[in-house]
Design a protein that fits this description.
Blueprint: H1 3-11, E1 22-23, H2 28-36, H3 46-49, E2 53-54, E3 58-59, E4 72-76, E5 80-84, E6 90-94, E7 102-105, H4 111-118, H5 132-141, E8 147-149, H6 155-161, H7 163-172, H8 174-195, E9 203-207, E10 211-212, E11 215-216, H9 220-240, E12 245-249, H10 258-264, E13 268-270, H11 274-277, H12 281-288, E14 293-298, H13 307-323, E15 326-330, H14 340-351
Parallel strand pairs: 1-2, 3-8, 8-9, 9-12, 12-13, 13-14, 14-15
Antiparallel strand pairs: 4-5, 5-6, 6-7, 10-11
Length: 355
């Protein structure tokens, strides 16, 4: 069977006897290390070198700020630059190390500044690729499952105004938070209506990053009473076009949000960071039933150790693989302390699994 049928059979608890072998990505420092350990030059895609598949292709549409804010350099040295990003946030970004930038100021602060963002979250033909029909043809013929990105309900808002301001907003002005979620979700539904009559997608891919290692950054009650309304709206739109699978990419300890997502129509969690909150994906599956699918959920930190540790981690995940609804991948980018040989060993073990 082709990759598309294979993946969809797994997600649908159908017939399969092996796992996809997907290569997501590396920290730049990992790439630097592996170049010394035999990784081929940049002119060969990493997934080809590792004889793995990249993440499936998507249909490129613009759900975010359109047009973006102009980027503006405020200060620059040999070590860093301070600049206003295209999302309006002032960030300090280091030049010689991989790190999340330090965010120094936020443009989105209140109802007045929200209007600047709301104006950039409106329907516009420029959000849709002019060659959509050609893209749709290519995706239909590629033999792989096709993603369509559906943006974020609250992760973007967190980015645009910062965690502290979002925390206050949840209680000081929940009506404004609801307006933000409605604006974003209405736009996403509009984009889907422009694209899906002309192109077939199999999985919708959303993003949040709204949790840290001990729990969500936002109250589950707020998430249920406000944020989930946006998810429900998008899930209904996806179902109207026959798309059964709605994935959310959220780092951190997400368990308190899982039942809310499931109730709102989200049914795939990624990357399911085992190393962050020491979760057992199989236990979580039993708790929330087969409605919950998982992509990821393999503790990337064991790849830093040895083959025995890798074997033990694979053994932990095999019952969930066999059950279906689960595609194993390291639960985030591969770390610089990982020997390339360990990663190759992991890929080969996954490649040779049979059920």
């Amino acid at each position: 069977m082709d990759s598309r049928t294979h993946v969809l059979n797994i997600l649908n608890y159908g017939d399969f006897n092996s796992m996809p072998v997907w290569h997501w990505g590396l920290w730049p420092e990992t790439r630097t290390r592996w170049e010394k350990e035999g990784l081929l030059p940049a002119d060969l895609p990493e997934h080809e070198f590792f004889q793995a598949d990249p993440l499936p292709p998507n249909i490129p549409v613009e759900f975010g700020l359109y047009p973006p804010f102009p980027e503006e350099i405020i200060e620059e040295t040999d070590e860093y630059k301070i600049f206003r990003q295209q999302d309006g946030v002032v960030a300090r970004d280091w030049k010689n190390r991989s790190s999340i930038p330090h965010f120094e100021d936020y443009l989105l602060k209140d109802r007045k500044t929200w209007q600047l963002y709301k104006e950039k979250l409106q329907p516009d033909p420029g959000r849709i690729p002019s060659n959509l029909k050609e893209i749709a043809r290519q995706r239909a013929e590629c033999g792989k499952p096709v993603f369509i990105n559906v943006g974020s309900m609250v992760g973007w808002i967190r980015d645009w105004m910062g965690v502290e301001a979002l925390s206050y907003l949840c209680f000081d002005d929940p009506d404004l938070l609801q307006e933000m979620v409605d604006t974003v979700s209405d736009l996403q539904c509009w984009v889907l209506d422009q694209v899906l009559p002309h192109a077939t997608a199999h999985i919708a891919w959303g993003w949040e990053d709204i949790a840290f290692k001990s729990g969500p950054l936002i109250s589950p009650n707020i998430f249920k009473n406000i944020i989930s309304k946006g998810y429900k709206k998008i899930a209904a739109k996806l179902h109207s076009y026959g798309i059964k699978y709605y994935l959310v990419d959220c780092d951190g300890m997400i368990e308190p949000l899982i039942p809310i997502w499931l109730d709102a129509g989200v049914n795939i969690m990624f990357p399911f960071e085992i190393g962050t909150w020491e979760a057992d994906p199989f236990t979580i599956r039993k708790k929330f039933s087969r409605d919950l699918r998982i992509i990821g959920g393999f503790n990337k930190l064991v790849l830093e150790k040895d083959r025995k540790a890798i074997d033990a981690e694979i053994e932990k995940r095999k019952p969930l693989m066999a059950d279906g609804g689960y595609i194993p991948m390291p639960d985030h980018l591969i770390t610089p302390d990982t020997p390339m040989a360990n990663y190759q060993y992991y890929l080969e073990k996954i490649r040779n699994l049979r059920f």
